[in-house]
Amino acid sequence: MAAHYHLVPISLLGLFFFFFLASPPALACDAGDRAVLLKIKAGFQNPGKFTSWNESTNCCTWYGVKCNPHIDDEGRVTSLKYWNDGAASDGLSGSLPDELGNLPFLSKLMLANHTNLYGVLPLALTRLTRLSILFLPLNSLSGALPSFLTQIQSLSFINLSYNKFSGVIPPEFSNFPALTVLALQANNLEGEIPSTIGNLSKSLSPLILSLGGNMLSGNIPKELLAANWDLLDLSHNKLTGDPTALFAANKMTTYINLSFNKLEFDMTGIDFPVRLIMLTLENNMITGSIPSQINHLSDLVFFNVSYNQLCGIIPAGPVMDRFDNTHFFPNKCLCRSKVSCL
Ligand SMILES: *[C@@H]1O[C@H](CO)[C@@H](O)[C@H](O)[C@H]1NC(C)=O
Ligand SMILES: *[C@@H]1O[C@H](CO)[C@@H](O)[C@H](O)[C@H]1NC(C)=O
Ligand SMILES: *[C@@H]1O[C@H](CO)[C@@H](O)[C@H](O)[C@H]1NC(C)=O
Ligand SMILES: *[C@@H]1O[C@H](CO)[C@@H](O)[C@H](O)[C@H]1NC(C)=O
Ligand SMILES: *[C@@H]1O[C@H](CO)[C@@H](O)[C@H](O)[C@H]1NC(C)=O
Ligand SMILES: *[C@@H]1O[C@H](CO)[C@@H](O)[C@H](O)[C@H]1NC(C)=O
Hints:
Protein name: Polygalacturonase inhibitor 1
Strand order of the largest sheet: 1-2-3-5-7-9-11-13-15-17-19
Helix content: 10-25%
Organism: Platanthera zijinensis
Order of helices and strands: HHEEEEEEEEEEHEEHEEEEEEEEEE
Keywords: Glycoprotein, Leucine-rich repeat, Repeat, Signal
InterPro entries: Leu-rich_rpt (IPR001611), LRR_dom_sf (IPR032675), LRR_N_plant-typ (IPR013210), PGIP (IPR051848)
Largest sheet: 11 strands, mixed
Bound molecules: 2-acetamido-2-deoxy-beta-D-glucopyranose
Shape: elongated
Subcellular location: Cell envelope
C-alpha cells in the first residue's frame, strides 16, 4: 500500500516537467507591426505608460499589446488595450492616429477613459477587416458617427459611450451583420432614431442597444419597438409617442430603461416580457393602472414607475410586494389597497 503514497507526487512531478518543457517560447513580434506600434506611440504623444514600447524589446510583451499565438500568423498584433484608471496626464493625448489602420490582424481596440483623447474616428479604421471589438468609451472623441464604420463587417461589439459624438445616428448603422452590442450612451446625439435600427436585432438577436443620455427626439420607430432586444436603454432623451409595441410577454428582453423621456401610453392592458429583470419607466407620461400580469415577472428586481400619471390599486402579488413606495411615488392616484393610497 505504501507505494500508492508515492504515486501522486511522482505524477505531479511528471506533469510539471511536461508543461515546463512544452511551454512555448515568447511570441516573436512581427517587425512590421512593431514599426507601426512605434508610430502609434508617437501619435499618442509618447504616453508615460508606454515606456516598455521601445526598439530593443519584443513588442508582444509591451504594455497593452497582445499577439497572435497561432503558428500561421504568429507575432501579429491582435489586441491593443489601455484603460486609464489614473490621472488624465497618464493617459493618451491627441487624436486616434491613422497608423491604427496598419495593424491588419487587430481584432480588439480598447482605449478607455482618456480625457485628452479627442478628434474624430479616422477612416483608416476601415482597413481593420478583422476588428471585432471597438471599445472606446469615456474619452473626448467627437464629430459625427461615421457611416463608414459599417465597412468593418467583422464588428461584433461597439461601445462609444461617454464621448462627445454629435449629429444623428446614421441609418446605415443597421448594417453590421455580426453585431451583438451597440452602446452609444451619454453623447450629444440628436434627431430621430433611424427606422432602420430595428434591422440590427435580426443579425444575431437578441441584441444590446444602449442610446440613453443623448438628445434623441421624435417617436421611437415601430421597427425598433417590434424587434426583440436583450437589453434596451433609451433613457434620458426627448422621445415621444407610444412604445407599447415594445412589450409582449414572449419577447426575450431582460432590461428595459425608458426613464426620463416624454412617452405617453396607457399601461392598463400591457403584457410585459416575462424574463424582465429591470423595468424602469420613471419620469414619463404613463396613464392607466399597473396590470396584474406584472406579478408573472418572477425575475424582476429593478422597477420604477415614479413621476407618471398612474392610478388605481397596485396589484398585490409576489413581484409587486418586493417594491416599497419609493418605486411608485409620486403618481396621479396609485394605492396599495382601497384604504392606503400613496
Ligand atoms: C526598453 O524597455 C525595457 C522594458 O521596460 C526597459 O527595461 C529598457 O530600459 C528600455 N530601453 C530603452 C532604451 O528605453
Ligand atoms: C477615469 O480617470 C479618472 C482620472 O482621470 C479617474 O479618477 C477615474 O476613476 C477613472 N474612471 C474609470 C472608470 O476608470
Ligand atoms: C459601455 O462602456 C461604459 C464604460 O465602461 C459602460 O458604463 C457601459 O455599461 C458599456 N455599455 C455596454 C452596453 O456594454
Ligand atoms: C431590413 O432587412 C430586410 C431583410 O433583411 C430588408 O428587406 C429591409 O429593406 C431592411 N429594412 C431597412 C429599413 O433597412
Ligand atoms: C436608466 O438609465 C439611466 C441613464 O440614462 C441611469 O441613470 C439609470 O441608472 C438606469 N436605470 C437602471 C435601473 O439601470
Ligand atoms: C425612482 O425614480 C425616482 C425618479 O428618478 C427616484 O427619485 C427614486 O429614488 C427612484 N426609486 C428607486 C427605488 O430607485
